[in-house]
């Protein structure tokens, strides 16, 4: 899975801690997601999608063989 989370978070002027608070997760979770070391749960993906006002599949991008 690839992610545009860091780019989109920066575009909204949010740091990891601020996004984490809004998404009700830890800062470490945001860090792991940005480093592509964690696949988000559906709930977390939807929360982040709403915060960043982007479709889930524009933030978290699955490659062909992953689906």
TrEMBL record:
PROSITE patterns for the chain: HTH_CROC1
Keywords, comma-separated and alphabetical: DNA-binding
Annotated InterPro entries: Cro/C1-type_HTH, Lambda_DNA-bd_dom_sf
Pfam family, one: HTH_3
SMART domains assigned to the protein according to its UniProt record, in alphabetical order: HTH_XRE
Domain of life: Bacteria
Keyword Manganese: no
Gene3D superfamilies (UniProt xref): lambda repressor-like DNA-binding domains
All copies of domain HTH cro/C1-type, residue ranges: 5-59
Segments crossing the lipid bilayer: none
One GO molecular-function entry: DNA binding
Signal peptide: none
Protein name from the UniProt record: Transcriptional regulator
Organism: Caryophanon latum
